[in-house]
Specification:
- The chain has two domains: about 10-145 and about 200-240, Vaccinia Virus protein VP39 (Rossmann fold, 3-Layer(aba) Sandwich), CATH 3.40.50; about 145-200, N-terminal domain of TfIIb (Single Sheet), CATH 2.20.25.
- The chain contains six helices and eleven strands.
- It has helices at about 10-15, 25-35, 55, 70-75, 115-130, 205-210; strands spanning about 40-45, 60-65, 85-90, 100-105, 130-140, 155-160, 165-175, 180-185, 190-200, 215-220, 235-240.
- The strands form two sheets. A seven-stranded mixed beta sheet has the order 3-2-1-4-5-11-10, with helices on both faces.
- The radius of gyration is 18 Å and the shape is globular.
- Bound molecules: S-adenosylmethionine (SAM).
- S-adenosylmethionine binds near residues 47, 66 and 93.
C-alpha cells in the first residue's frame, strides 16, 4: 500500500522508538489544554503513545483517543495509567467515536499526516459532529516555509557515524501541497528506507477548511506558551470553536 494511503504505516515504523529524547516536552501543551478542557470529556486525535494524553488525564479531564496504529496504542497501554484511556482504533479522518466532547485536539503537525485534502476536510467535519455546541478543536502545526521546497526534490545529510550514515530525500508536489520523505540509512546490514508523507497547509487554508465544517477561529498563538502569532511565526496553536 502506498504511504499516501496507509494510516497505520507511521506507527509500524516508529512505535518502537517514538518515545525518545527528540520528542518535545509536553508540559506547555498540557497546561494549555488542561486550562481549556477544565474537567470535561476530551478527545485526542492520533493519540499515539500518550505523550500528551497521559499527563493531561492526570490533570482532571476525561481523555479518550483515536489512533490508527495498534503498535502506538500498545506503547500507551504499557505506561502507568495507559489502560484507563479509551482508544478507538481507526482513521482520525472518520473520528470513529460518538462523544459528545467539550474539546478535541490534534497536535504535533499530525493534521498533515492526512495526506489528502478531502480527508483533512472529513476530519474537521467529523470533529464538528462529536463536539458539544461551542466546543473547541485545538490544532498545532508548523507554518510551511516555501524556502524548504524551492526545488521539487531535495537531499539533506541526516547523520554520519563511523559505521553508518543517513540522508533525507524529499519530493515535493507543490500543487497538491504534499511531500514524500525517505530517510535512507546505510549500515552493515544494508540500505534501509523509512518513508513518510504529509500534506502541509498554511494557517489561512486551515481556517477556511475549519469554516466549511462550522468552526470559527477563536484564538491563535505561535506556541503553547501563548506567544503572539505573527508573520514570522514558524508554528501555530489555533483554537477553533463550533458555531
Ligand atoms: C507524530 S505522532 C503524534 C502522536 C501524539 N499525538 C503526540 O503528540 O505524541 C502521529 C500519530 O498519528 C497517528 N496517525 C497517523 N495517521 C493517522 C490517521 N489517519 N488516523 C489516526 N491516527 C493516525 C500515528 O500512528 C501516530 O501515532
Amino acid at each position: 500500500m502506498s504511504v499516501f494511503d496507509d494510516p497505520g504505516l507511521f506507527g509500524r515504523l516508529n512505535a518502537e522508538n517514538y518515545d525518545g529524547p527528540d520528542n518535545p516536552d509536553p508540559a506547555a501543551a498540557v497546561d494549555f489544554l488542561a486550562d481549556l478542557a477544565a474537567d470535561g470529556r476530551v478527545l485526542e486525535l492520533a493519540i499515539g503513545t500518550g505523550r500528551i494524553a497521559l499527563p493531561l488525564a492526570a490533570r482532571g479531564p476525561a481523555v479518550e483517543g483515536v489512533e490508527a496504529s495498534p503498535e502506538m496504542v500498545a506503547k500507551l497501554r504499557a505506561k502507568p495509567g495507559g489502560d484507563a484511556i479509551p482508544v478507538a482504533i481507526g482513521d482520525m479522518a472518520d473520528v470513529p467515536v460518538t462523544g459528545p466532547y467539550t474539546m478535541a485536539y490534534l497536535v504535533f503537525n499530525t493534521l498533515f499526516n492526512l495526506v489528502r485534502a478531502e480527508r483533512q476536510a472529513d476530519c474537521f467535519r467529523n470533529v464538528a459532529r462529536v463536539l458539544e455546541p461551542g466546543g473547541a478543536f485545538v490544532i498545532e502545526t508548523f507554518v510551511p516555509d516555501p524556502a524548504d521546497f524551492d526545488r521539487d526534490e531535495q537531499v539533506q545529510p541526516w547523520w554520519v557515524a563511523e559505521d553508518s550514515a543517513a540522508i533525507r530525500l524529499h519530493r515535493y508536489d507543490r500543487t497538491a501541497q504534499t511531500f514524500l520523505r525517505q530517510t535512507v540509512t546505510f549500515d552493515a546490514a544494508g540500505v534501509h528506507l523509512h518513508p513518510f508523507a504529509m500534506r502541509y497547509m498554511w494557517p489561512d487554508q486551515i481556517d477556511e477548511m475549519a469554516g466549511r465544517a462550522g468552526f470559527r477561529l477563536a484564538e491563535r498563538y505561535a506556541d503553547w506558551d501563548r506567544t503572539p502569532f505573527g508573520p514570522d511565526s514558524t508554528s501555530h496553536v489555533s483554537v477553533y470553536r463550533l458555531g
